[in-house]
Structures are given as C-alpha cells and as structure tokens.
Design a protein that fits this description.
- The complex is a heterodimer.
- Helix content of chain A is 77%, strand content 0%.
- By secondary structure, chain A is mainly α.
- Chain A has one domain.
- Chain A is globular, with a radius of gyration of 20 Å.
- By secondary structure, chain B is mostly helical.
- Helices cover 83% and strands 0% of the residues of chain B.
- Classes of the chains: A mainly alpha, B mainly alpha.
- The A-B interface holds A 34, 38, 42-43, 47, 52-54, 56-57, 60-61, 63-64, 99-100, 103-104, 106-107, 110-111, 114-115, 117-118, 216, 219-220, 223-224, 226-228, 230-231, 233-235, 239-240, 243 and B 4, 7-10, 13-14, 16-18, 20-22, 24-25, 27-29, 31-33, 35-40, 42-44, 46-47, 50.
Chain lengths: 245, 54
C-alpha cells in the first residue's frame, strides 16, 4: 500500500483544487435531496396515528440533530489529526466546522422545543437529552470564542483543537442519554440496531433528509475549507495561481 | 390546499420549525460563501504587498 493519498490529503494545493471541483456536485445533490425530502415529509408521508401532523417536525428536527453530532465528530477528529500530525489542512477542516455545527445545534434545539410544546406540554424541560444538546451548543460557541480570542492562527488552531477533542465525550452522552436516564425524549427509532420503528412512507423521506443534510454539510465544508486553506497559506506561489486561475 | 396549510391543527408548530430550519440552511450557504470570499480578498491583499512591482 502506498501513502501517496495521505500526503495528498496533507497538501493544501491539492485539497484546495479538489474541494473546488467537488463544490457544485455536492451543492446540487444536497439541494435535490433536501427538496425531495421536504416534499416527502410534508406531502407524501401520512399523519402519525398518535401525533397527527405534528410529527412532521421530525423531518427537520432529526436531520438538524444528526447534523449537529456529525459536524462535532468531524471537527473533533480533524482537530485530533491536526494536533497529532501537525497537519495544517486538518486544522483548516476543524475550523470550518464550528459555525455550521452551532447553527444546526440551535435548529435542533428550537425545532425540538416547538415539537415538545404539544407533545410534552412544554417548550423546555431540564431533561438529559435536551441539556446535553445544549452543552453541545456551548461547546461550539466556546470553540469559536476561543479561536477569535487568539490572533495567531497556529496557536488558535492548537488551543481550539484541545477543546474540540476534550468535548467529544459529550457526543456519546447525547446519543445514549435517552437510554441511560429516564428521559422525556423518545429512544432512537432509526439510528439503532435492527429494523427502524417506522413504515416506509414515513421512513424514506426521513432517510432522504438525513442524506441530504449530510451532503449539504459536505458542500458547506468544501466551501469553507478553501477559505481556511487560503488563510493558512503564506506567500506560496500556488496562492497566486489559485486566486488568478 | 387550506387543509395542507392547516396541518391538522399543528400549523403553529410545524411551519415555524420548517421555516427556521430552512432559514438556517440558507444562512449557512451565505456565511460559507462569505467566509471564502473574505479569505480570498485577504490573500489577494497579502500577495499585493509581497509582490515586487516592475
């Protein structure tokens, strides 16, 4: 086995060009999947026999929550790689994640709150799932605050990477909170071993939305990553090429 | 159509959820593109400073 792919992954010009090539594909694929998922969730899926049409909030709530965790794990893994191998591109990936993650964590909390109003009779409850997701929002915001407090980019990368790696303990807590503690929040019905507890007419739009949000994260990541690579590249001759070409 | 907008009496919870999520999706596109545009502009300025003009 050769290691060329690993060296390419570490080479800013190569990643920059690759990210630029991927951008339109990821963008359009995400747009199509999200539009199809919205149509499926709002129109094709039948109302729930207990929750009626209120359950349709799942098609924006679950993908946002999934996004918040996926983005955090990506950020933490990239930060760890950046710390261990001192890889600039990995730090650039981690730095690209925070704002995306924070906004979708907020979306997950807000849509969950709207869903909870009728189903639980309250917008907010100090519940393990809700509190651990709120801590995730604070982790993303703390990460961004820490970065903006340090002027030197290299030091900001390393300090924020430590925070990202330490904070990853919160991810399994969020996922298993509904099983470990007596939570108001329902247990997973899709993200679990075995068959999902949902008929296909409800499940297919949900899976479409989950896939669409995943690809959308890919799109946002490659756009931001190019910017973060440019910020980290000093006086390289390829910079001139990348900017003029 | 009216029935669709009514969402079985849950319109006040379903529509704001969808609207909020889609606003965040669109904002993320704007923020990501703006972040790249700013980084490109800053890199151009750095290049202009280091460039030796004939």
């Amino acid at each position: 086995m050769t290691w060329t792919w690993f060296h390419r992954l570490a080479s800013p010009p190569h990643v920059y060009a690759f990210a630029a090539r991927l951008t339109p594909w990821l963008g359009w694929a995400a747009a199509l999947m999200i539009l199809a998922g919205l149509y499926g969730g709002l129109v094709l899926a039948p109302p729930d026999y207990q929750q009626g049409d209120d359950f349709r909030i799942i098609y924006v709530h679950a993908p946002s929550a999934w996004m918040s965790l996926m983005v955090y794990v990506t950020m933490a893994v990239a930060a760890a790689v950046g710390l261990v191998w001192r890889m600039k591109v990995a730090h650039a990936v981690a730095a690209s994640c925070a704002a995306i993650g924070a906004s979708f964590t907020f979306a997950a909390l807000a849509t969950g709150s709207l869903w909870g109003r009728k189903m639980w009779g309250t917008y907010w409850e100090w519940d393990p799932r809700l509190v651990s997701e709120l801590i995730l929002l604070f982790l993303f915001m703390g990460y961004m605050a820490l970065r903006s407090a340090i002027d030197d980019l290299q030091r900001a990368d390393r300090a924020s990477a430590v925070l990202a790696v330490v904070g990853v303990v919160n991810v399994p807590i969020i996922h298993y909170s509904v099983l470990w503690w007596n939570s108001l929040h329902q247990a997973p019905s899709v993200m679990k071993l075995g068959k999902p507890d949902m008929p296909a007419a409800m499940l297919v739009p949900l899976l479409t939305m989950l896939a669409g949000f995943t690809v959308f994260f890919g799109y946002l990541l490659v756009v931001r990553l190019r910017g973060e690579i440019l910020r980290r590249e000093r006086n390289a001759s390829w910079l001139r090429e990348a900017l003029t070409g | 159509m009216n029935e669709f907008l009514h969402m079985g009496g849950y319109a006040a919870f379903v529509w704001p959820s969808y609207a909020l999520t889609m606003v965040i999706v669109v904002l993320n596109i704007i923020w990501a593109r703006r972040s790249l545009a700013r980084a490109s502009a800053a890199a151009r300025r750095r290049l202009a400073v280091t460039e030796v003009r004939p």
